[in-house]
Amino acid sequence: MLSVKSLFTEYAGGTGAGAVKAVQDVSFAVPEGKLFTLLGPSGCGKTTTLRSIAGLEKPISGEITVAGRVVYSSASGTFVPPNKRNFGMVFQSYAIWPHMNVFENAAFPLRVRRLGKPQIKEKVMQVLTAVALAELAERDATKLSGGQQQRLALARALVMEPQLMLLDEPLSNLDAKLRDRMRSELKRLQRELNLTTVYVTHDQSEALALSHEIAVMNEGRVVQIGTPRQIYDQPKDRFVADFVGSTNFIPGTVTAVVEGRCVVRSALGELKAHASEGVSRNGSVTVSVRPEDVELSEGEPTGTADDNVCKATVSSRDFLGDYLDCYVKVGDALLLAKAHPSLRTPVGHPIYVRMKATKCVAIPAK
Amino acid sequence: MTDAAQRMARVPAIAPQLDLGRVIVALCIAVVLWLALVPLVFLLWQSVLAPEGAALPARMTLDNFRTAYFSGDTARLFLNSVEFAAGAALLALVIGTSLAWMNERTNTPFKALFFALAIIPLVIPGVLFTVSWIMLASPRIGILNVALQKLFGSDAVFVNIYTMSGMIWVDGLHYSPMAFLLMSAAFRSMDPSLEEQAAMSGASLVQTVWRITLRLATPAALASLLILFVRAIESFEVPALLGLPVGIHVYTSAIYQAIHSYPSEMGLAAAYAVTLLILSSLGIYAQSRLAGEGSRYSTVSGKGFRPRTIDLGLWRYFTAAIFIVYFVLVVLLPFLVLLWSSLQKFYRPPSLAAIKTMSLDSYRTVLDNPQFASTVWNSLVLAAGSAGAIMFLSAVLAWLVLRTRLPGRWMLDNLASLPLVFPGLVLGLAIMVCYLTVDIGIYGTLWILFVAYVTRFLPYGMRFNSASMLQIHKELEESAAMSGASWSMTFRRVVLPLLKPGLLAGFIYVMIVSIRELASSILLYSPGNEVVSIMIWELWQNGQYVELSALGVMLIIALFFLVMLAQALGRRIGIAEA
Lengths: 366, 578
Fold this sequence. Notes:
The complex is a heterodimer. Helix content of chain A is 23%, strand content 37%. In chain A, the strands form 4 sheets. Chain A has a 6-stranded mixed sheet, with helices on both faces. Chain A has helices spanning 46-54, 102-112, 117-130, 146-159, 176-193, 204-210, 228-233, 238-243, and strands at residues 2-11, 20-30, 35-39, 61-66, 69-73, 78-79, 87-90, 164-168, 197-201, 213-218, 221-226, 248-258, 261-266, 269-275, 284-289, 295-297, 307-319, 324-330, 333-339, 350-356, 361-364. Chain B starts with a helix and ends with a helix.
């Protein structure tokens, strides 16, 4: 459906400075009806990529096609202006026009397409109903709450029956509780309407919860593309592991590699781990293991051959209500474990650590 | 995916198509280039041209500059101009700074009222302000002299407005509201904790003001001084009405005289104008440099702090008295003297006998004058027309400068601000030369005044529009594009409506300054195409003081209502922003 190939963009730098490369060699494809997320820290190029798809930025090279229609291609010199692309977009600020009421905001895309009045009315009321704003149709757009503005922005993008939906951090301006609600609302709408969607966010939990597929971006490049589970469980490199969720990093050297699994010599002793791409014998690696995969127990755990077990001492503990952040010391290495709050082992006491080999991911060190 | 869409997909994008938006943008760029640059070129050309004589054809020469720079009067002219401008600027700055400090930083009573009153002098056109001070302080008929002479029973001349100090006094007073506004902004953005820290360190009020407040305000004061200097060196009404009759010449009055001498010395006027242009450009350049460096002193700590005011104790009645005296000098006396004179059959200072002869005849004369209706109509049409043209043109320009990555857009910004350095008289001269040479049929019509006003006040339009454009989030436009709107549709349906409050406020402001405009108009009007300010000027030249006063009173009242309207609109914008 949407395909982005070798996209490069750059900004003219400040006075004197050369061009700043914003996006470098970004390629991905989004199948019909799927929600694809560009995830990364601010300045990683995710918004620039989205705006290039929208046509609000002009890349310097690459190709963007939507359902077989080339909207941008440096090779053939094609550039379809944004108003001819027929993509719906929800902006981070929602961009609700303050000089129009709710109905007029949503009707605008149809007005510029010169649809008949009754038709406009019908379609607008239909989308406003879908986002539960129908009763507020005559209200001043400036008198909407944040959540209502967000839904209106969504309605305005939906009313034109876009080929592609582009969402630029649409939840970032909402408070935490509302954000969770709008997130599931957004997901329901997207799944129901089967809208091909590109979603930009810096919030990893949003990305994991919403997406069919995620592209993690850093410094203008796509680092890893995968399903939410692949991204979380098998990060390809240190950046992905660190950015998506929190994790422990244990440096070490590979002593053996067999069929996607490996043994790593580290401060914790020999660790059995999942070998990601590029791990080779004698190479130095970082083993990433999530805090929730670091299991603690006072008694010696009954491990299988696939488990890494070692002895540690409790170094510090922070009670956070629904769980316990517990730092344990193994030799010189410090590990963070997310433990059940019922664990009462005091600081300084010995404790057993168990980590499943499949949850330990060896990443080549750079 | 349908076949049709598949086929569409293979159509390569067409080369830039001619749509309405592009045409408008290109037109606006062309217009600003023409307005800002062409008259300047003609002015320079004229300054090195010797006129066609009986025996000689026109030729290139440096004679004009030789006369302008190396004749006996050169030094006198330069020194007079600088003395006048520096004096007026300093006077305005001292008055404006003191008032701004009292208003922003102290607990002087009724200061909220005062801030509103301080804007009023801005509506009094320079020519009326000057005339009213002549009526107040001329040696023979001045009310102040008459009153003082009665009081002391002597014939001595107590105050004489026809002197250099008189000129400085009138011009300084006239520009003091501007200094007040500039310095108020500076004081308002100053972090009060810097003063409080001085107090905590043991400094007295006077020490704090002297060692902290004024030092922090120095860059702003210097920048304001330069602006005021440029304004004063450009001012025409005061030197023409007060200086010319007694032979005190400055550049503006010298230009006027050169043109109105017989035969008119256009080349010499142009040479003077070039000199004046250089002086005002230097001033503006220095001011912009200073503003750049001043950011080091920038003490604004973001929105939201409420400056705490200083408790003056009993002194606050003293500062309130200063406010009142100022208001009397700048608004009340000039207005009352005009009002008084407008109620007489012929001008005479106030006395019991004169009260008995009060009548409304002068108003009747003015209103019955067939020229009056057409003049007012001309002024209104011109003011509204140029304000409309300026606001539209500058909206497009501001959009181009702030919203696009058009190469060379910074130059567009500078070009649109260039007319700021043109003194009104110089601009008038440049435009006159330009359209006398390139005859497109607008010389001698109202259109030439229209061109002059649009050029002269375009920078104001830019300011209003840039300020409001900066407040419109870029995504509001982008979402219109994503909704399928073309550029012209986005501009019409989204940008212009959002700019509307700023456009309206700017429109009224430009109308006000256009109606007051005299310096450019005086070189460009032609009989039958007078505007109100010219009519006042002509009445003065004809000695019709009472009719002038009646017209002046009506004009001030009309402008006053326009200003109130602008302020009310301005407040509405303020609310919309909150």
